[in-house]
Amino acid sequence: MKLISFFMVLFLASLSLDAQTYYGVGGSVAGYYSSSYFGHYAGDANTAWFNSFFGAFAGHNNTTGTQNSFMGSDAGLKNTTGSQNCFMGANAGRLNTYGSLNAFVGVNAGSNNIGGEYNSFIGTNAGYSNTYGRNNSFIGGIAGYSNITGRDNTFVGVTAGYSNTYGHYNSFVGVASGHSNVNGSHNAFLGLNSGYSNISGSYNSFVGTDAGRLNTSGYNNVFMGRSAGYSNTTGGSNICIGANAGFSNETGGSNTYIGSGAGYSNKTGERNTYIGSGAGSYNETGDYNVCLGPDSGAATSGSKNVFVGFRAGYFEAGSNKLYIENSHTSNPLIYGDFATDELAFNAKVRIGDISQPAGYRLYVKEGILAEKVKVAPSNDPINWADFVFDENYDLNSIETVSDFIKNNKHLPNVPSAVEVNKNGVNMVEMDATLLRQIEELWLHVVRMNERLKGLDQENEVLKKEVADLKNK
User: Fold this and answer.
1) Which of 178, 359, 436, 443 could form a disulfide with 172 if both were Cys (CB 3.0 to 4.6 A apart)?
2) How far is CA 457 from CA 461, 463, 465, 472, in A?
């Protein structure tokens, strides 16, 4: 007991020898009005209520600021009138004078804050340069380090929002997320290095590691996925969703890329829509393309194309083309050319709910209405009825035709009603058949006319002979 009492005496003696190291609550030495101080010159000038200062020079210059808690060497050193602040860590809130309602945790956290309010800085050097910025939340070592007057920002992660100075309403979550942002506002970056190089771009949403990493001044972009929109610098109003979607885009704008690697190589192209893994992946400068399907239009370089289906239009290098196909063939199921208003079907086409007979490309239920129809041969010549006029043509006699009609109830070489109802009518063949009948009729007419001429001549001879007999 005597030994313990001896050390207590020495301890109390030390208090009297160093009057500037304060311990305890209340009194002219400890401070004013229910305040608590511990440390060399802590709260030395304080005359206010309800403050707690712990550490050498903590709250040293505080005069009328109330309800502050400063812990750490030089924490809240310059604070005079700021109230309801919580500074923890060496130099935390060191230069704060009248800023209130701040929470700074970490060495040098919010060290240069002067009048900023409602800030929460957690981490070594978090919000270090902030002076008058308010309503900011910086969590992570050096997060929001360079912020000066930026307000309403949320930075979470080591060096997140490091360079932000004047930017407002930003949310950066992830290591180095929004690292280079200076005055860009209304951005939301989530992921390692997301929006890393953004300087003045605003209204961007980047989600994923390295998403929008090189963006500097691009605006209104949405990049979601690892390295989505990675190389974008000034391009605006782009939507890139999927790993590496729009990876190489630099200045292109108003593009929509959805799928892993969709629009990967595009640099300057604008108003493209690529949906599907690898869609339009190698097109660098094309504009106004629509590619729907994995690898659709992957190797194209043109503009204003529409490719629908797996690898549709994969190797098409032209522009204004339409491909609907599920392979990389150059003869797709449906092909079109917007420049020449051409549409081609490399397939059978059926219009109407009915099975399609074999051997035909087009079937239309209930008929076709048209102003003009022309039938032209492609490769095989049409067997037209000119052969009727060949010298060796075997023309049926009238008697033979008459007998055939009596026995079959239709003309020779013309299909019967039963055959037509069963097999339909080939228009070209039927026109040739009907023409054949007409030409055969004309042959009979020509022969009958020759016979009539002969009869007329015979009649004239007979008339002359009769007249001669009457004159005798």
Assistant:
1) 178
2) 6, 10, 13, 23
Both tokens of 79, joined, read 């604070």
Give the CA dihedral 42, 45, 50, 52, nearest 10 degrees: -10
Q: Quick one: tokens of 472? A: 């005798």
Q: Are 172 and 155 in contact (CB under 8 A)?
A: yes
Detail the DSSP E strand segments found in 9-136.
21-22, 36-40, 52-54, 69-71, 86-88, 103-105, 120-122
In contact, 286 and 271? CB cutoff 8 Å: no
CA 383/CA 37 separation, integer angstroms: 115
Phi, psi of 363 (to 5 degrees): -135, 130
314's CB contacts (< 8 A; 6+ apart) are: 295, 296, 297, 298, 299, 300, 328
Measured CA to CA, the distance from residue 355 to residue 204 in angstroms comes to 54
- What is the chain's alpha carbon radius of gyration, rounded to the nearest angstrom? 48
Coil, helix or strand for 456? helix
Residues 59-106 have pLDDT tens digits of 999 999 999 999 999 999 999 999 999 999 999 999 999 999 999 999
Phi, psi of 243 (to 5 degrees): -55, 125
Which residue do the tokens 């659709």 mark?
296
Tell me, what's the pLDDT at 28?
37
CA of residue 99 relative to chain centroid, distance: 44
Joined together, the tokens standing for residue 451 give 């016979």
Give buried/exposed letters for 280-300 (b at 16+ CB in 10 A, else e): bbbbbebbbbbbbbbbbbbbb
Cα(60)–Cα(42) distance, integer angstroms = 5
109: its two tokens: 């956290």
Residue 189, CA distances (Å) to 52, 126, 193 in order: 37, 18, 9
The CA–CA distances, whole Å, from 122 to 75, 94, 103, 177, 186 equal 14, 15, 8, 16, 22
Looking at residue 365, what is its pLDDT?
86
97-156 confidence digits (pLDDT tens): 999 999 999 999 999 999 999 999 999 999 999 999 999 999 999 999 999 999 999 999
Most confident segment among 23-32, 289-298, 402-411, 445-454: 289-298
